[in-house]
Amino acid sequence: MKIHPLNTGNFKLDGGAMFGVVPKSIWQRTNPADSNNMCSWSMRSMLIEDGDRLILVDTGMGDKQSEKFFSYYFLFGDDSLDGNLKNLGFSRDDITDVFLTHLHFDHCGGAIERSKSGHYEPAFKNAKFWSNERHWKWATEPNGREKASFLSENILPIQESGQLNFIKDIKEEDGIYKTPLGFDAVIVSGHTDAQMCPIIKYKDKTIVFMADLLPSVGHIPLPYVMGYDTRPLVTLKEKGDFLQLAAEKDFYLFLQHDHANEICTVKQTDRGVRLNQTHTFNDIFN
């Protein structure tokens, strides 16, 4: 197995929305805002080479939405899905599996492209797309709070293509689920229902793709919960339980949205679980 971090792009979101009830005077210490109160975030995916499989975990926002849509998110920098795949010697057609942690547009938008004829179709022609039945139902019958994040053009063409597959909810005693992709996943429902966070054994270490359970190191303290989360009190419990486990087991936490940090570890302190160290991926695994 070989793993590559792969940044699909960078964008900006309102700092208050990203930190919920936490005052700006506190959260801006770790995530400084610009004059419009916007903080910088990444859309970091993961590419896994494993035997005959080339697995992409999340796809970023994609490029098919309107100019007006993108104007809300202030995309910046030169990173792109295609560009960074090419840098690694791959193309979209090489991808065999696309594992979607959840179906919010900044995680799955790149899964679908607009064809020359104007139709929406999978951007990865040779891939199986992986979700789970609970989350798929949640996303395709969206509640009013999340409707703007679940865009039908990002989701329905996956099913229409016949390339959609579901992870079956076979629960283990420790709350971890098996997947057919050679890694496990923890399923959490505070941010959105049945989000999946891959847990990967790699080079004698455990990497956890944190998705939106832990967007950045600035979100490690328990009250630091995004305003986007549908069930913030559930997030508190899920994040608290998982960070406790991560501290005990020395997990390496792969941060999808932290613009400054790719990997972090956590430790137990007298104030609860806190940041231990930050690393680049290559520092730890190359």
In round numbers, the mean pLDDT is: 95
What's the total number of strands?
A: 15
Strand order of the largest sheet: 9-10-11-12-13-14-15
Distance between the termini: 13 Å
Strand content: 25-35%
Could you estimate the helical fraction of the residues in percent? 10-25%
Structure write-up:
The chain has a 7-stranded mixed β-sheet with strand order 9-10-11-12-13-14-15. It has a 6-stranded mixed β-sheet with strand order 1-2-3-4-7-8. A two-stranded antiparallel ribbon has the order 5-6. It is α/β, with parallel strands linked by helices. It has 9 helices and 15 strands. It has helices spanning about 15-20, 25, 65-70, 80-85, 105-110, 135-140, 150-160, 230-250, 280-285; strands at about 1-15, 40-50, 55, 95-100, 110-115, 120, 130, 165, 175-180, 185-190, 195-200, 205-210, 250-255, 265-270, 270-280. It is globular and about 55 Å long. About 25% of the residues lie in helices and about 30% in strands.
